């Protein structure tokens, strides 16, 4: 189970299905509530109309036994007085609830005619008038004139049994001030069977339709996500094959789309290309370093073997030179290894003007023109850059070498120019590669191992700067080192 829902496809399908399920339940609930409210409101309107009709007859002095509203088959009616005594009810009404009184049989009373015979004297009419006045005093909250019907109605839900059939009803209560009976309340009901039927039908349709719809949503989402993730699976398989074969020349397939998967494939191929370049560079570096180390080691071994057999033939100066050369080469390789490992330079303040004068001290033909400029970094590594640039310039200059330090915008610019033959434009980038010598006929003793400029550029990049080669005004080569000033946005060393 955990493996099934561990895939993106399964989680996407489950998530989409849950979202749609929540939306359907919310929409279905709102629909049922709205449908029920509308149908209940319609039943209440019908009940109010029935109660208003009976109230109109009562206001017109219609006798209780002749009220037409009491004969309706599907409309149970009750008429009660202010004391809650049932005066009249529908003929077939057997049981009722929800109207305030459960009585279905009117209380014993005299007929309207008998009542009028008993009250033919003026004293009785006065007594009735006094009773109505007393009721008017008690109903100050809603005063009605004789024959007037109260505006609006109150609603309740209940049940009624009419002619043996029990149903749910919506009841409306309407008050009326009768000329001869005082304040009466008419309760009339309208059946809720249509509301129950419609809500039940809608609920059944939802219970059947919603699971089907969720199944369709889950199926479509499963197919769509599977199709969308198919290129990702192809990328994964190819990456697994590349890892197993260790062949960085292979590339993952790139979909012919412009979506995130296609961008992922392109980024992956770019990463593979960078890895291939890095591995190839490391291989060349190891091969070249082995070749460069072999020469001084072989020379030292030869001299030591000759010295062991013939001590008088020992070339001590040559052995010292080979040892120094081997020591410098080992130092250069160690520095390159640290730079390749991502060693971050120290964040100390370095005055490039003072550093340039310090590195130029003791060198012939070197002129320094510098203004105080501070950068953040490693003083030792930046001094190594200037030393390498000056060593390179001394090997090619005819008469003069010029070192300049200036401020240019938010950068410190260090220039090392010579008056030699210069560097051809086509070779101005290649000279920064490791173990590269432009003059193949030049001896290693004169030209070094070809690591000085490569180390200088790597140090510059680690300090957030650049190192470029160009043409000097005097016709020779000009190397420009650009570093961010202390406090500038580019002052952070690159990883």
Could you give the topology of this structure?
Blueprint: H1 8-59, E1 77-81, E2 86-89, E3 93-97, H2 112-118, H3 122-138, E4 148-149, E5 154-162, E6 165-178, E7 182-191, H4 193-245, H5 260-309, H6 316-340, E8 348-351, H7 352-360, E9 366-370, E10 374-377, H8 379-396, E11 401-408, E12 411-418, H9 444-447, H10 452-462, E13 466-471, E14 477-484
Helix pairs in contact: 1-4, 5-6, 6-10, 7-8, 8-10
Structure, explained:
By secondary structure, this protein is an alpha+beta fold. It has 3 domains: 25-197, Beta-Lactamase; 248-341, Signal transduction histidine kinase, dimerisation/phosphotransfer (DHp) domain (Helix Hairpins, Orthogonal Bundle), CATH 1.10.287; 344-484, 2-Layer Sandwich (Heat Shock Protein 90). Helix content is 50%, strand content 19%. The chain has 10 helices and 14 strands. It has helices spanning 8-59, 112-118, 122-138, 193-245, 260-309, 316-340, 352-360, 379-396, 444-447, 452-462; strands spanning 77-81, 86-89, 93-97, 148-149, 154-162, 165-178, 182-191, 348-351, 366-370, 374-377, 401-408, 411-418, 466-471, 477-484. Strands 1, 2, 3, 4, 5, 6 and 7 form a 7-stranded antiparallel β-sheet that branches. Strand 1 (77-81) and strand 2 form a beta hairpin. Helix 7 (352-360) crosses helix 8. The longest helix is centred in the middle third of the chain and has 53 residues, at 193-245. The two termini are 43 Å apart.
């Amino acid at each position: 189970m955990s493996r099934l829902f561990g895939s993106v496809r399964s989680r996407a399908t489950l998530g989409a299905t849950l979202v749609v399920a929540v939306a359907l339940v919310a929409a279905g609930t709102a629909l049922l509530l709205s449908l029920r409210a509308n149908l209940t409101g319609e039943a209440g309107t019908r009940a109010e109309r029935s109660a208003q009709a009976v109230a109109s007859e009562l206001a017109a002095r219609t006798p209780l036994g002749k009220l037409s509203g009491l004969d309706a088959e599907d409309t149970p009616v009750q008429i009660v007085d202010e004391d809650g005594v049932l005066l009249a009810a529908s003929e077939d009404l057997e049981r009722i609830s929800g109207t305030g009184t459960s009585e279905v049989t009117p209380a014993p009373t005299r007929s309207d005619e008998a009542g009028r015979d008993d009250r033919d004297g003026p004293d009785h009419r006065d007594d009735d008038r006094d009773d109505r006045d007393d009721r008017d005093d008690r109903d100050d909250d809603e005063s009605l004139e004789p024959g007037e019907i109260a505006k609006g109605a109150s609603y309740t839900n209940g049940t009624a049994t009419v002619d043996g059939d029990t149903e749910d009803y919506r009841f409306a209560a309407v008050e009326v001030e009768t000329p001869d009976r005082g304040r009466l309340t008419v309760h009339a009901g309208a059946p809720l069977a249509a509301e129950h039927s419609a809500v039940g039908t809608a609920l059944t349709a939802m219970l059947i339709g919603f699971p089907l719809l969720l199944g369709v949503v889950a199926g479509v989402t499963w197919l769509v996500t599977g199709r969308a993730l198919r290129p990702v699976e192809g990328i994964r398989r190819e990456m697994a094959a590349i890892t197993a074969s260790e062949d960085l020349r292979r590339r993952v397939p790139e979909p012919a789309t412009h979506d995130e998967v296609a961008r992922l494939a392109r980024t992956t191929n770019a990463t593979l290309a960078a890895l291939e370049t890095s591995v190839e560079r490391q291989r060349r570096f190891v091969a070249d370093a082995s070749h460069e180390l072999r020469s001084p080691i072989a020379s030292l071994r030869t001299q030591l073997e000759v010295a062991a057999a013939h001590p008088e033939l020992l070339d001590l100066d040559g052995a010292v030179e080979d040892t120094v050369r081997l020591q410098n080469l080992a130092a250069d390789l160690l520095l390159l290894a640290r730079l390749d490992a991502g060693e971050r330079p120290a964040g100390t303040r370095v005055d490039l003007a003072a550093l340039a004068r310090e590195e130029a001290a003791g060198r012939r033909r070197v002129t320094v023109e510098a203004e105080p400029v501070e950068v953040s970094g490693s003083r030792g590594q930046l001094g190594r850059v200037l030393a390498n640039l000056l060593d390179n310039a001394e090997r090619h200059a005819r008469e003069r070498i010029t070192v300049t330090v200036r401020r240019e915008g938010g950068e410190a610019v260090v220039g090392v120019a010579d008056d030699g033959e210069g560097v051809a434009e086509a070779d101005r980038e290649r000279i920064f590669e490791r173990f590269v010598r432009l003059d193949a006929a030049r001896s290693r003793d004169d030209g070094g191992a070809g690591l000085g400029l490569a180390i200088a550029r790597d140090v510059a990049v680690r300090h957030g700067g650049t190192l470029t080669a160009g043409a000097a005004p005097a016709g020779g080569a000009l190397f420009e080192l650009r570093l961010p000033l202390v406090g500038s946005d580019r002052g952070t060393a690159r990883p």
